[in-house]
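@channel sequence for tomorrow's demo:
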Amino acid sequence: MEIKQMITHSLDTFNNMFIASEALIELNEDVNPFVESKLRKILHSQNRKEAYFQRSKVEELILKYRVQEMDFVTCSSEIAQYIFEEKRKYNVFTQSLFMFCEVLDEDIRYLIGMDNCSVQGLTYAADTEGEYLINQIALKKNLFSPNILKNDRIFIFDTTNSELMLIEQPYTTETQSINLLEHILGCKANPSYKESVEVMNDCAEMIANKYDVDELEVMPKLKNVLQDCIKEKAVVLEEVANAVFTANPLAQQDFKEEVKKAGIKENFSAENVRISKKQKTEKIRTDHGIEISIPVEFMEGHEYFEIIHEPSGSISIQLRNINALERK
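structure tokens (generated this afternoon):
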């Protein structure tokens, strides 16, 4: 990853103060590791949502920068000021830092905007000693977080194909809950990979109960097929349904209908999604409180693991072909 350009602007809607930087942040060995860590998490986040601009002011500004009608500093400043003004319209009164970066990663050039990428709005300091005003990042672990925070609102624009991605949690007040960045940017977002998989999990459990199929058979199959989808970088609902509810066409059809009814597309991207430890294992808990964590690939065959339903009605769990044991 290479950070080409980076700049920050102060968005203090609480005190109605917008402070725009007039020059780029100097990239060096102190700045880069913190920011690169956050950027990598952004580009691989399972919370990224595909989105599409709809008559957007921000899209117009990005286009002007791409065709060289506007420089990077001016583009970032106008985007930041627009977000600042829109946040006040939505009665969002907070202190935050807007960071705008141009990043080259695996030969793809991205424009990434991050609002509220600070903790308590204290991660910057205005530097006016030189010719230009620059909002410098205060590089302290308790101030600038290299992780994606709950209140971060992030957009990722792929300049090679004009694809837009968003990362944000709903902004919730006593009277409403909205996807604030989606409204501000003037775009429409699809559910993220993580949200789509959560819907699939719920639907698989529901259909398993409806057709009296053991969840311990269904859910590991779902995790296995989703791992294959991540490797292929795309999720195809038809393939998932066939793999999870093998030889049960009615269950397959019901599963697909329930998933689509929840607003999930039949095909969606798994680009840049990494397989987590949770996706690789299935946890089982007995009525006596014993917990076992099993790699999901071992649950479809009987070479290493089997659940046995005894004539007495009890259940036995058998582990096989073990050469050694160790305490963890």
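heads up for whoever presents: The chain has nine helices and 18 strands.
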